[in-house]
């Protein structure tokens, strides 16, 4: 007579065990989901930093197709497209991002950046105008300065460049842009000062060195500035100074600088040599 009771007890124990196993399985599944999420996040970070841009675009394209509502993956796709030099596609994705729940002011700044990269200055200006003035970041003001530059609103551009340079510990890039802005509007002296300051933060940047030489040459100062440079860079900077001198009508000085460029370069400096030949040929015809 005890068999039914025993069976009932056994069945009860089995059900209890099954209940425990179900609970444990749920916990395991949750743990695995967490691990997978962490792995996916790590992979996304890798793709955005050290991954090949084309591989990153492919990865985030697949991921956004699988999970279109995940804003972090949409951001990853947009950033990867910028890295892959596809700013127009990036701008379309950033527009999608800023319309999603959880979008931030930084997303709008990133959209404006992609629009500038794709030469959509009007779009960038409109996007920046939607960002609240309380969002004061280096990236935001750097873009504001560039847009003001494109509008030739020099007063506003100078103001934004100054604000941006004060919001970063590495302002070399924005100082170089500001200097180039000054140079294009004819303020060579102001440009020289900004290029020189930019080099104090990044003394190895050749573009800034070249811009500094152009700013000095625009003022008739053709001697090379006292800055850090390799022998090859010295030859290239002499070449820049020589061409600038010739454009200003100082042909004799320009010829001498071109010759110095050829003599200075550790390898044969074809560009300077060709410029000298053209100059000499022009003199003979004259």
TrEMBL record:
Keywords: Signal. It comes from the Bacteria. InterPro entries: TPR-like_helical_dom_sf. Residues 1-18 form the signal peptide. PROSITE patterns: PROKAR_LIPOPROTEIN. Gene3D superfamilies: Tetratricopeptide repeat domain. This is Flp pilus assembly protein TadD, contains TPR repeats. It comes from Rhodobacter aestuarii.
């Amino acid at each position: 007579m005890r068999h039914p009771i025993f069976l009932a007890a056994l069945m009860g124990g089995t059900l209890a065990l099954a209940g425990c196993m179900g609970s444990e399985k749920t916990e395991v599944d949750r743990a695995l989901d967490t691990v997978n999420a962490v792995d996916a996040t790590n992979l996304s970070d890798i793709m955005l930093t050290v991954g090949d841009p084309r591989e990153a675009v492919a990865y985030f394209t697949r991921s956004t197709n699988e999970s279109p509502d995940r804003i972090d993956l949409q951001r990853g796709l947009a950033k990867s497209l910028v890295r892959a030099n596809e700013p127009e596609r990036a701008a379309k994705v950033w527009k999608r991002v800023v319309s999603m729940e959880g979008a931030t002011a930084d997303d709008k700044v990133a959209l404006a950046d992609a629009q500038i990269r794709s030469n959509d200055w009007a779009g960038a200006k409109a996007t920046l105008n939607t960002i609240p003035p309380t969002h004061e970041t280096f990236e935001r003001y750097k873009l504001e300065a560039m847009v003001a530059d494109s509008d030739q609103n020099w007063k506003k551009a100078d103001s934004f460049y100054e604000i941006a340079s004060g919001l970063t510990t590495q302002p070399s890039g924005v100082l170089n842009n500001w200097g180039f802005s000054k140079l294009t509007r004819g303020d060579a002296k102001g440009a020289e000062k900004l290029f020189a300051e930019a080099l104090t933060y990044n003394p190895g940047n050749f573009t800034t060195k070249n811009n500094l030489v152009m700013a000095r040459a625009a003022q008739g100062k053709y001697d090379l500035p006292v800055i850090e440079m390799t022998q090859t860079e010295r030859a290239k900077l002499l070449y820049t100074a020589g061409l600038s001198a010739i454009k200003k009508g100082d042909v004799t000085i320009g010829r001498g600088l071109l010759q110095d460029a050829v003599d200075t370069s550790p390898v044969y400096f074809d560009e300077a040599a060709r410029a000298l030949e053209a100059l000499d040929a022009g003199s003979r015809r004259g």
